[in-house]
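[Meeting: bench + compute handoff]

Bench side (C.D.) handed over the final construct sequence. Compute side (W.E.) agreed to return the predicted structure before the next meeting so the bench team could plan truncations. Sequence as handed over:
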Amino acid sequence: MTAEPLRIHAAPWVVPVCGPIIANGGVAFRNGMIVAVDLLPRLQQRYPLASVVNHPAAALTPALVNSHVHLELSHLAILAATPFAGSFTDWITRLLQLRDTLGAAGGPAEQAALRVAGQLYASGVSVLADIGNTLIGSNLADTFPGTLFPFKEYLGLAERTLAKNFTRLQSEPDHALCSGHAPYSTHARLLQQLKSRAATLGHVFPIHTAEPVAENEMIRHGRGEMVEFVKARGFWDDSFQPLTNGSGGSIRYLHQLGLLDARTLCIHAIHVDREEIRILAGQGAKVCLCPGSNQYLGTGKAPVAQYLEHGILPALGTDSLASNPELSIWREMQLLAAAHIEVDPALVFAMATRGGAEALGVGDRLGTLEPGKEADLLRVPVPMHKTTPAQVYNHLVTTGSALAAQRLQD
């Protein structure tokens, strides 16, 4: 195959994420792969025959990663259209009732999911980790212009559901991505089987973790709001075993079950203590934060600074339109930055790019601008009066969904 001519995208600011922002920089690429990232004069000296495409008043950045979304719930957007006041289980009840009324799949659900996936891609998101109970996500994966990981979610807390779920899991093709919903909704033995399969096949294992306060009460003591909710739905059979020592929460519970490693992605991870953060760091487990959904449901704020102190760079996700009025990774950055002013905006932007790519196992090809990675770039307008790297990062993470990012084509 004949190599394409080398080209350089140049801008006042290049944001590699893996290193300092480069003023008056450029990204040289060929055949869809990055060859070099450097000051523009150095690139032109090194590659004198390369064509240069200039992007004035802009920053060049890696494309974004949405590490947690439920596309199949997009047709339930009316749930988050108005402010919510109630418990976490109140919201789940409303969600299930609306889904029963409108249907879990079918034309409207599929069309809404397709529309949202398209909007996310148009906003600069190249990678989606979608969680679902239908075929909507896997069907979209075939046509999504970027990379869409469709995780099939398993539920079933009652012991009587194990045999059926084990049989179902054994029939899954090796390419199928499977995950457990949450510690409060999926039996421990099923979670272990799901994780074992994921480890054998080299798959990422995402799981909702430590989202509502009531989850920890169930995990520690086997009682409380979550237990009453499961009982009301007829899925409680006293087979659930709380933590052996009665302290900690969902992270310690997952660790006790042997579920934490470098390919485990703990979604939300709000209500965790310092020892659990140390456990996550020690096991190399990943974390995905969803500030917009957490704010809407009132479930709390994750200990972001503590994660960073322990060497954990979280990923970011939007969750679904059923719990978040706007699905935008730009907005998630904005919300996180506003709620955690102590966190460097450069790290917030890294969460939306490198953190997500590493969490989903694609950090070797996406998430940063460096040689050997895919030339998946965004052009983001930056006002001329932003004259320092700090100001550029602050602009990227605080302007939110108002940013008009443009994907650059090869």
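W.E. noted at the follow-up: DSSP finds 15 helices and 15 strands in the chain. C.D. will use this when planning the next construct.
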